[in-house]
């Protein structure tokens, strides 16, 4: 789990090029079906600070409102280019994340946990989800921590984590083995997690959040995101949050400041294969 291997420049640039192809297909799907998405996380930071990838970044993040994400799921089930596949927590038995990934078939990008799952992880972009969070402060507190806890259980149910912290390692692996021993369905945990995320989907809520990242990412007001604006990302225009400055400031602080030189790298995966691409 302690990833110290680094990309060489050629491999990283090649990976970014392939990910751009996936992003362009994702945007095409959204535009053809009137779905709203936003560039998100480090990709949003790269859009504003670098007009594309953060030079040392090795992934692309997008995010959608829950309703849009579920529409995308249904569209993809019926009509997806044969080159791609879309996985999420409920359509892939041993997938342990609670967001989606749009993957390019006949490629491989294996992380340290690859031998613990029953599917091949292809080169991908992450498709995160914005869920409603209630206005009432007590309900919000309960909803936040129940959802976050179920997210952690979902990950620990399928993956035996290692950790630099011995205490965290013991806790994570104890939960992992307990779920295997006692009669709890790991898939059932996933379903409960998604149902928790969606609990207030049809309510009139002012705020939204990305539950898996709620301890690192802030809660946002819907007007921080809507209506989307356009910005340059590499050679294309993409959607960004309406108040991107507020979103980035609350997440990264002084986001235009570059990190120290020793932090300008991303850990490389254990295996990467670009196939014909």
From TrEMBL:
GO terms for biological process: glycoprotein metabolic process. Residues 30-253 form the LicD/FKTN/FKRP nucleotidyltransferase domain. InterPro entries: LicD/FKTN/FKRP_NTP_transf, LPS_cholinephosphotransferase. One of its GO terms (molecular function) is transferase activity. Keywords: Transferase. Transmembrane segments: none annotated. PANTHER family: LIPOPOLYSACCHARIDE CHOLINEPHOSPHOTRANSFERASE LICD. This is Lipopolysaccharide cholinephosphotransferase. It comes from Methanobrevibacter gottschalkii DSM 11977. The lineage of its organism: Archaea, Methanobacteriati, Methanobacteriota, Methanomada group, Methanobacteria.
């Amino acid at each position: 789990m302690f990833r110290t291997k680094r990309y060489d420049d050629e491999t990283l640039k090649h990976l970014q090029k392939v990910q751009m192809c996936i992003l362009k297909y994702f945007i095409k799907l959204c535009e053809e079906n009137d779905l709203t998405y936003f560039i998100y996380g480090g990709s949003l930071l790269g859009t504003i600070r670098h007009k594309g990838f953060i030079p040392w970044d090795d992934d692309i993040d997008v995010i959608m409102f829950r309703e849009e994400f579920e529409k995308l799921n249904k569209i993809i089930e019926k009509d997806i280019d044969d080159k791609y596949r879309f996985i999420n927590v409920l359509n892939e038995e041993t997938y342990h994340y609670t967001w989606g990934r749009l993957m390019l078939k006949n490629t491989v990008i294996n992380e340290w946990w690859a031998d613990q799952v029953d599917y091949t992880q292809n080169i991908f972009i992450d498709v995160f989800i914005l869920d409603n969070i209630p206005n009432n402060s007590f309900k919000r507190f309960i909803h936040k921590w129940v959802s976050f806890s179920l997210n952690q259980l979902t990950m620990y149910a399928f993956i035996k984590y290692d950790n630099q912290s011995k205490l965290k390692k013991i806790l994570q692996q104890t939960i992992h083995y307990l779920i295997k021993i006692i009669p709890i369905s790991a898939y059932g945990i996933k379903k409960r997690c998604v149902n928790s995320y969606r609990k207030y989907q049809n309510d009139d809520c002012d705020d939204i959040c990305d539950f898996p990242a709620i301890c690192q990412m802030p809660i946002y007001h819907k007007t921080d995101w809507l209506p989307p604006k356009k910005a340059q990302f590499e050679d294309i225009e993409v959607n960004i949050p309406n108040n991107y400055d507020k979103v980035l400031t609350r997440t990264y602080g002084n986001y235009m400041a570059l990190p120290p030189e020793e932090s300008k790298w991303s850990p490389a995966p254990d295996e990467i294969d670009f196939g014909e691409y």
